[in-house]
Amino acid sequence: MTQTLGLPNDSDLIKPSIFNNRSQPTRLNRTDKILLRALYDPRLAAGTPKKHALGIARKVIAEIDAKLP
């Protein structure tokens, strides 16, 4: 379900992760939770220019990271 509603591509850069085809986790880890919450944050709108989106993403990710236990 998360693969369907989550990020469009997998990455070998993050291990372990449900977004990495080489690992087989059964639960979302901290990084997975941050990525999914950032993906659906309303401040990151589709069509935002990459340079602007990266600045927003840095703020969003920092906020999410600070809130997670």
Describe the structure.
By secondary structure, the chain is mostly helical. It has one domain. It has three helices and no strands. Helix 2 (30-39) crosses helix 3.
Question: Quick recap of the structure?
Answer:
The protein has 69 residues and is mostly helical. The chain contains 3 helices and no strands. It has one domain (2-67).
Which helices and strands, and how do they pair?
Layout: H1 2-5, H2 30-39, H3 50-67
Helix pairs in contact: 2-3
**What is the CA-CA span between the terminal residues?**
24 Å
Could you give a short account of the major beta sheet? none
Mean pLDDT: 86
The proportion of residues forming helix, as a percent range, comes to: 40-55%
Count of structural domains: 1
Oligomer: single chain
Number of helices: 3
**Looking at the structure, what is the overall shape?**
globular
Element order: H for helix, E for strand: HHH
Structural class of the helix and strand makeup?
A: mainly alpha
% residues in beta strands: under 5%
- Overall radius of gyration: 12 Å
Low-confidence parts? none
What's the count of strands? 0
